[in-house]
Specification:
This protein is of the alpha/beta class. It is 45% helix and 15% strand. The strands form 3 sheets. A 6-stranded parallel sheet has the order 10-9-8-11-12-13, with helices on both faces. The protein has a 4-stranded parallel sheet with strand order 3-2-1-4. Helix 9 links the parallel strand 6 and strand 7. Helix 1 packs across helix 18, helix 11 crosses helix 14 and helix 12 crosses helix 17. The chain starts with a strand and ends with a helix.
């Protein structure tokens, strides 16, 4: 009998990483043949995010369930009125579709905890708050601590994306470690988006001429954009044609002034002609701009397992990569590490790469997908 797995489409415009994580885990699970033959995936999505999962429509055993439709069900409305602190929608889905596991999920502080806990597979994206508490309000810090301690004590199965995250979890929270699974992910990009060969059209759309570096991160403080602009201000002294293209939402709700500080630095250093701040763009356009870039720069101070790095690896692009622990797990032969606090070092590496030939190959490499999908499948079957 096939196992039915409910994937919750977490994330949104404030955290695109959550959407990409669920999509990549589902896609790489389906890349493993025994999983395709023995599981059904039910993807619980809302109207705003459903388009992000279009590549999963190719599989017969993937079923989309719209959040808006389930919330209207009489059972769900009745249960919510009866007990306010209840995941009525998930209880309905478990009963209706005979769900074996819900991922990623942990019923913290819920009245239905016992019923859903034995079906839950939890996931913790990262432990940034441990290493950079200054980026969090006291309330958000304590909420994370409460949630993670409860997961440590009571989880059914727990997925972490890296050995680095595992070390953080065990050293900080301890707990039962026999059901912790280290399952990374690779970027299972839409092949049509990769191979559409629209680099020049996409550059024209955004007013970009010539060569450029690209940075694909939301403007959170820990993403460390400022080091790039500090390095750029040095690099253009010898190479005035160097340009940097940035994609990603220009907002950090934890520090509303951060983006203004970046804009003021760009203006103050007269970098306006060298920097393109595109904001949120479509994944297809982002892929084309990554394909056309000299290199991808990932300057982050902390990651759980970086999606941008995996995107670049799938496209076989050069990457200038911050020298942090998790990046040592992710890096390949096309990665060059740099100290994320040293603008001089990054400027030097940018100049080196700028003077290399830019090879536009339209590569599509997902060799790790089946390997990681096998790990997830083995966890489900254990």
């Amino acid at each position: 009998m096939k196992k039915n797995i409910l994937f919750l489409a977490n994330g949104g415009s404030n955290w695109m990483g959550g959407i990409y994580y669920v999509k990549n885990q589902a896609a790489q699970l389906l890349s493993y043949k025994p999983a395709r033959e023995n599981i059904n995936i039910y993807l619980y999505v809302n109207e705003k995010s459903i388009s992000e999962y279009k590549n999963l429509l190719l599989y017969k055993n993937v079923h989309f369930i719209r959040e808006e439709n389930i919330q209207k069900k009489f059972f769900c409305r009745f249960c919510r009125k009866l007990i306010s602190n209840l995941d009525a929608d998930l209880i309905y889905l478990v009963l209706r579709y005979q769900i074996s596991y819900i991922f990623p999920y942990f019923p913290v502080g819920k009245d239905n905890k016992r019923f859903l806990l034995r079906r839950s597979i939890s996931w913790i994206a990262d432990f940034q708050h441990i290493h950079f508490p200054q980026f969090f309000s006291r309330y958000e810090y304590l909420q994370r601590e409460k949630r993670y301690y409860e997961i440590a004590r009571n989880h059914n199965k727990l997925v972490l994306s890296s050995r680095d995250a595992y070390r953080d979890f065990i050293s900080k929270y301890g707990g039962k470690n026999e059901k912790i699974y280290i399952i990374p992910f690779c970027s299972m990009l839409d092949k049509c988006d990769v191979m559409s060969r629209d680099v020049e059209r996409t550059k024209l759309k955004y007013g970009i001429e010539g060569d450029y570096f690209i940075v694909c991160n939301q403007f959170w403080q820990h993403k460390n954009h400022m080091i790039i602009f500090e390095s750029l201000s040095q690099a253009i002294i010898h190479n005035p044609d160097i340009k940097v293209v940035c994609t990603g939402k220009m907002q950090d709700y934890r520090n509303q002034e951060y983006v203004n500080q970046i804009r003021n630095y760009i203006t103050g250093m007269k970098l306006e002609d060298s920097v393109f701040l595109l904001g949120m763009i479509s994944k297809k356009d982002q892929i084309q701009l990554m394909n056309g870039a000299k290199a991808v720069i990932q300057p982050s101070l902390f990651e759980g397992w970086g999606t941008v790095v995996e995107d670049a690896k799938t496209l076989r692009k050069r990457i200038l990569l911050s020298d942090i622990s998790v990046h040592h797990e992710q890096k390949n032969s096309l990665c060059t590490l740099f100290n994320p606090y040293d603008a001089d070092e990054l400027a030097e590496k940018m100049e080196e790469v700028w003077n290399e030939e830019n090879i536009l190959g339209y590569h599509y490499s997902i060799k790790d997908g089946e390997k990681f999908g096998k790990l997830f499948y083995k966890m489900i079957c254990s």
